[in-house]
Amino acid sequence: MLAGKVAAITGAASGIGEAVARLFVKEGARVVLGDIQGDKLRRLADELGTDRATAQECNVSQEADLERLADAAVSTYGSLDVWCSNAGCYHREGVTRQDGLMENLDTADFDRQVAVNLRGVALGTKHAARAMKRGGRGGCIINTTSIAGLVVNCANSGDPVLVSAAYSASKHGIVALTKLGACELAPYRIRVNAVAPGYTATPMLAKTIGLQHLSKEGKRASTCFSLFVCLLAAKLPAGTPALSEMCTNRPAQVLPSPLPRSHIPHTTLKLAPLKLTGCALGDRMRAPLLPELEAELAKVSIMPGVALRAEDIANGMLYLASDMGRCVNGHTLVIDNGLVAGVAGYVPGLETGDTA
Ligand SMILES: NC(=O)c1ccc[n+]([C@@H]2O[C@H](COP(=O)([O-])OP(=O)(O)OC[C@H]3O[C@@H](n4cnc5c(N)ncnc54)[C@H](O)[C@@H]3O)[C@@H](O)[C@H]2O)c1
Question: 276 and 188, same structural domain?
Fold first, then answer.
């Protein structure tokens, strides 16, 4: 479906970006892969074949890096047809979900997320459009936003939807940039669209879950996520810092490992406050553990048993990138099992029987 096309993908070393790179190459594209994780990126490019894939370290918060990435597609493979602004980040290590609230805003963290998630997309569009216009054969730009770019939930409400001001604002901004880009670039036959994934089993989600405060008892998703973290913890060597850091109310506690399933401390998990400082855990999230994340997501999915995989998001990007999506422009394709449709359709009062 992408034979003869050249694509550049940011955030390609992991998760959704990696799945997009694999799928696009399978569909006949040649790809230039950008990411800050140089080693992982080079391993992926080697695996895909150097005639098909080129790795180029790229920090999307640096305009010069984005310009180099767009130029690399043209100089290496002769054109730039598809640009995926997919790199994204959540809180930096050590910043908690509470710090994400506006009243506690960590300015440096806010600036970093906006620089990567939002400005990176704007500048990516700038340099991709420049290269595509020069090529004269149109093109397609795809931005990765999120369901957090479509709906918001107050992080202090105990709602299971994970948000922070910086993440949500930057992801909402991507939807606006996508519409603007679509209008601005349509005369050059350059389409600009976005994908909005729901909770998808990737290393980023593992880290995100690890960073949240679990402050309310009995919250279905939180409990489930906690269980998932415990299941992962059971796979880690005994005494790893992640295990002892998990329970700030018992900082010295080191859980036995492997942790028998029967020993998964539901009661401990429900003890508030149970603060997860799971960055370390997220960093240990390796491919063999992703099926476990997926299994836990499937349990809380609005579509029972169906969890989103990186490949599901990549499939949406393929549709937008290929000729199947040739008339789709300015659109945000939501891939979330219908979760946001439910949020949008929620009518306050209905649950109390008030149907007015
Ligand atoms: N996983 C989810 O549940 C989910 C949901 C909605 C949206 N998203 C979005 O999907 C995109 C991909 O995330 P993922 O889930 O695959 O996570 P991931 O952590 O597996 O991959 C993200 C990649 O982006 C790279 N990256 C981070 N900062 C960068 C920078 N400054 N410059 C270049 N590369 C950088 C990382 O090194 C990593 O390889 C992100 O934009 C994320 O916000 C993810």
Answer: no
Which are the contacts of 75, defined by CB distance < 8 A and separation ≥ 6? none
**Ligand 1 neighbourhood includes 116 CB (under 6 angstroms):** yes
Contact 320, 142 (CB under 8 A): yes
Question: Among 309, 311, 318, 326, which residue's Cα sits nearest to residue 7?
Answer: 318
If one counts the domains in the chain, the total is: 2
Is there an atom of ligand 1 within 6 Å of 37 CB? yes
The model scores a pTM over 0.85: no
61 Cβ inside 6 Å of ligand 1: yes
144 lines ligand 1 (CB under 6 A): yes
Same domain? For 295 and 319 the reply is no
Regarding whether 159 and 28 lie in a shared domain, the answer is yes
Cβ contact 173:181 at 8 Å? no
Q: What is the set of active-site residues?
A: 167
All residue ranges of the chain with pLDDT < 70 are: 92-100, 153-163, 208-289, 343-356
Question: Do 159 and 240 belong to one domain?
Answer: no
Q: How far is CA 294 from CA 21, 46, 199, 299, in A?
A: 21, 27, 10, 9
Residues β-bridged to residue 130: none
Domain membership flag for residue 355: no
188: which residues sit within 8 A by CB, 6+ positions away?
129, 132, 133, 138, 139
Which residue's alpha carbon is nearest to atom 32 within ligand 1?
59
How far away, in angstroms, is 317 Cα from ligand 1 center?
15
**Residue 120 falls inside a structural domain:** yes
90 CA distance to ligand 1 centroid (A)?
Answer: 8
pLDDT at 97: 61
Domain membership of residue 189 (yes or no) is yes
Please give the C-alpha separations between residue 282 and each of 18, 72, 81, 242, 256, in angstroms, as whole numbers: 17, 32, 34, 9, 19
Same domain for 168 and 70? Answer: yes
Contact 27, 81 (CB under 8 A): no
- Which atom of ligand 1 lies closest to the CA of 12? 39
Q: Which domain holds residue 236?
A: 205-300
Question: How do strand 82-85 and strand 139-144 relate by DSSP bridges?
Answer: parallel
CA angle 267, 273, 276 (to 5 degrees): 90
